[in-house]
Amino acid sequence: METGTGGQRLNVDELTTVIEDFNTLFIRLPTVQQFGFSSLSVLHTLSRRGPTRLTALTTTEQLTQPAITSLVSRLERDGLVERRPDPSDGRAVLVALTDAGAEVVRARHANRVTRLGQLIADMDDEQRDAIARSVPALRRVIELATSGDNLGADS
Fold first, then answer.
1. Cα 115 to Cα 66: distance, rounded to the nearest angstrom
2. Top-level CATH class of 34-123?
3. Roughly what angle, to the nearest 10 degrees, separates helices 54-61 and 65-77?
């Protein structure tokens, strides 16, 4: 599938493959504190969204209720998250990052910045400029995907 008008046509199939390959690399960039993908995803979701209900995490993490409950229990046991009463509904519980959980997210981000910076430093100016120009467009894709119900929508 190609889209676009004007200068360059965008091959969405090629873009998808490149993003998948980049994500595989990017997930593995940090050399600090190795955790499973699902654990890290929950920590990163909580760092960006703040305290979140378990039911909301089942949606964002695409896990079943028993799986997310078990995962949160492990993260809680490891001191990375805590459960709190939901102030808007006394029957519900919110999952929140602890200081230790926030430190894991911060350390992994800092390590990724360093490692990605090293890789980008080996590129030529034109390639670095192309990446810099793509950041606003990629941010917009994220906004479109996360607004409304677009994140989990099948085409």
1. 35
2. mainly alpha
3. 110
